[in-house]
Design brief:
By secondary structure, this protein is an all-beta fold. Helix content is 0%, strand content 61%. It starts with a strand and ends with a strand.
Length: 121
């Protein structure tokens, strides 16, 4: 089994910063991609940023220039550095890890439980 655990959420004023962490553990061979999604009440879950093992990154237009996704491969930990936060960034942030489970031939997605980010004006 593979576990994904997010941390680092909290409350911050507009213009502030937070760093979210995503730790992946369990029985897997390698992480192919890590991604961050967010979901605000009444809204659909949306992609924030993704980082492929090749180093390729993709960001949603609404976070470009403000958020940075990164990863510590040796620690199987990913990060989302969020700067210049806006009230519209308030949401539950989820980490998704696409990994090759041990004994598997295909990759599989695993989700964390989410961490709440609240930005006040």
């Amino acid at each position: 089994q593979v576990q994904v655990v997010e941390s680092g959420g909290g409350s911050v004023q507009a213009g502030g910063s937070l760093r979210l962490s995503c730790e992946v553990s369990g029985r897997f061979v390698s992480i192919i991609e890590m991604a961050w999604y967010r979901q605000a009440p009444g809204n659909q879950r949306e992609l924030v940023a993704r980082l492929h093992t090749s180093g390729t990154t993709n960001y949603a237009d609404f976070v470009k220039g403000r958020f940075t996704i990164s990863r510590q491969p040796t620690m199987n930990t990913g990060y989302l550095q969020m700067s210049r936060l806006e009230p519209e960034d308030t949401a539950n942030y989820y980490c998704k890890a696409n990994v090759i489970p041990q004994g598997a031939v295909r990759t599989k997605d695993y989700w964390g439980q989410g961490t709440q980010v609240t930005v006040s004006s």
